Amino acid sequence: MSALPRAAELGLIACTVCGQVCRNVPGDPQLDGDGVDDAMACPRCGSTLRRRKPHSYAHTWALLIAAFLLYIPANVLPIMRTASLNDVDDNTIISGVVELWVKGSPNLAIIVFTASIVVPVLKFLALGTLLVSSQRGSGWARVQRARLYRLVELVGYWSMLDVFVVALLTALVRFSVLSLVEPLPGVIFFGLTVVLTMLASMSFDPRLIWDGKDTDD
């Protein structure tokens, strides 16, 4: 069965801003330089039409590596300090999850563990897989990889849940004169990790998945 023609081969290009599909796009239908056709602008919103996001691989790799480096201190440094009359306790993400579990909040512990550990690690693995396979021009599981990218974008909006939990606990405990909860530097590193992974996901051009060889590796 012959491969279906791509939009670029048919002279079609979609605006990444408003979604307008334009016809009769001049220039080479194959990838060319930074993927920008300077002669074309979207007739609806006036944005420059891009066959591919400029320098998508370089930007995505840079953001992903930076996010991974920041994720290390985000897990090593404490993210929250709880203080009462008799005790002061600094918690990292893992120790906070354990404490929530031990003190009778298993549901909240599972939510924090999922948002703070499982989701970031899976995003690193998923984006790394998309980058490597696309750069190799692999035809392997293109539909599944496109769905994986959409899933990464979807779960990205929930990645800041751990920061929200710390902020909520801080606000609630401030009503008590006998105890205190305050955020620590680990929260900053974790927040930066989440932001950078979201920017990495936005920098990756999913259209790159469909470039390259048409046969499975």
From TrEMBL:
Its main location: membrane. One of its GO terms (cellular component) is plasma membrane. Keywords: Cell inner membrane, Cell membrane, Membrane, Transmembrane, Transmembrane helix. It holds the Pfam family PqiA. The keyword DNA damage does not apply. It is found in: Cell inner membrane. The chain crosses the membrane at residues 60-80, 108-133, 154-177, 183-204. It comes from the Bacteria. PANTHER family: INTERMEMBRANE TRANSPORT PROTEIN PQIA, INTERMEMBRANE TRANSPORT PROTEIN PQIB-RELATED. This is Putative paraquat-inducible protein A. It comes from Rhodanobacter denitrificans.
